[in-house]
Design goal:
CATH superfamily of the largest domain: Bordetella uptake gene, domain 1
Largest sheet: 6 strands, mixed
CATH class of the largest domain: Alpha Beta
Number of strands: 12
Number of domains: 2
Strand content: 15-25%
Strand order of the largest sheet: 2-1-3-10-4-11
Helix content: 40-55%
Radius of gyration: 20 Å
Length: about 350
């Protein structure tokens, strides 16, 4: 069988898996919050762990650590809430742990970046978790990804990146920053070169030290972790890889402004859909309906808490809340995406020969 036939077969198999999951998604997502569980959740004398699919110092980590004390305040039994970072595989390690290992008693909850949400649709290798089976609790932000270069780099606009290679620090070959860079290369002809293997925090250090030229990350993350870079002009923002333009950078173009092909625009819209529920919280499959209900109530109370609002504002976190029901609706929309759109997105982000790994210590 020639290489092209193998790839076509793999794509067909992936589409079939997605179709099967889509057929079950409506049922699973509807039933996730009403599974067995007549007994009210009580977390007194227990410890709750938030498993963050990202490294210490990154945006997902910062949002999780800010809201953690308010989960403790509003969960039944007021349990201590700790954060455990699992940045491996672009954040997928944490998602896999929640799905396959974590206890299903309400003491384990996850938060992740966009990459692991999109992986089951975009990867050639089947994922060992099913996004549709998580119980979604809510999300804290709307993704507003930008690609930006350090101020010392001799690049002034996205047009310049069409004429020279610009290295980008990323957390993994499947991570959202890598995929954003590769999409720009495919759709508008840039020459971003992802360098993967960093964590959220070390990627920013690499940029500051001059090891790489650029980052493709969310403004929310930058405002939370490196607000001074925005205020003092350390970063030159080149393009919004987002549905909307951030008001603070309304003169910076969107990637959509450069894309004329309708199929490419549809693919970019699909890629950006998970960013509509950035930094989501989710419980493992099999948790009781009462646990889901208690967690959703705690989430709603936490984000409405005046003290949380003050804390998140102090940390310059741009909070745009979506409820558990709203996140579920967006997950259903993901599963309803036409196969042709998914295929075009897969073609655009194929990292074969395009992603370089940073040297790992021996």
């Amino acid at each position: 069988m020639i290489k092209g036939e193998i790839e076509m077969k793999a794509t067909a198999q992936r589409m079939e898996r997605i179709a099967r999951a889509a057929g079950a998604a409506c049922i699973v997502l509807t039933l996730a919050s009403v599974t067995d569980g007549a007994q009210a959740l009580d977390l007194k004398d227990k410890t709750v762990t938030i498993y963050v699919g990202g490294g210490t110092g990154g945006g997902v980590d910062a949002y999780a650590r800010t809201i953690a004390p308010y989960f403790q305040k509003h969960l039944p039994g007021n349990p201590p809430v700790v954060v455990s970072n699992m940045p491996g595989a672009g954040g997928a390690q944490a998602v896999q742990y929640l799905y396959n290992v974590a206890p299903k008693t309400g003491v384990a909850i996850g938060s992740t970046n966009v990459g692991p949400i999109a992986d089951p649709f975009l990867e050639k290798v089947p994922s060992n978790y099913d996004v549709s089976k998580f119980a979604w609790i809510g999300s804290l932000a709307k993704g507003n990804t930008v690609c930006a270069v350090w101020h010392t780099v001799n690049v002034s606009s996205i047009e310049d990146v069409k004429n020279r290679v610009v290295t980008v620090a990323t957390t993994g070959a499947r991570s959202a920053p890598t995929r954003s860079a590769l999409l720009m290369n495919s759709f508008i002809g840039t020459k971003f070169k992802p360098i993967s293997g960093y964590t959220g925090g070390t990627a920013l250090l690499a940029l500051e030290r001059g090891e790489v030229d650029a980052t493709c990350t969310t403004l929310n993350s930058l405002r939370t972790t490196r607000p001074q870079w925005i205020s003092d002009g350390s970063l030159k923002i080149l393009v919004h890889v987002a549905m909307d333009v951030d008001p603070e950078f309304n003169k910076v173009p969107r990637a959509f402004d450069f894309i004329k092909d309708a199929k490419d625009r549809d693919a970019l819209e699909f890629f950006l859909l998970p960013y509509e529920f950035n930094n989501p919280f989710y419980l493992p499959p099999g948790v009781s309906g009462e646990a889901v209900k208690a967690w959703r109530a705690a989430f709603d109370a936490a984000v409405a808490d005046p003290d949380y609002k003050a804390d998140s504002a102090k940390r310059q976190q741009d909070v745009e809340v979506k409820t558990g029901d709203e996140v579920e609706a967006l997950v259903k929309k993901l599963f309803a995406t036409p196969a042709g759109v998914i295929k075009r997105t897969i073609e655009a982000i194929d990292p074969t020969g395009k992603v370089e790994e940073i040297p790992q210590p021996k």
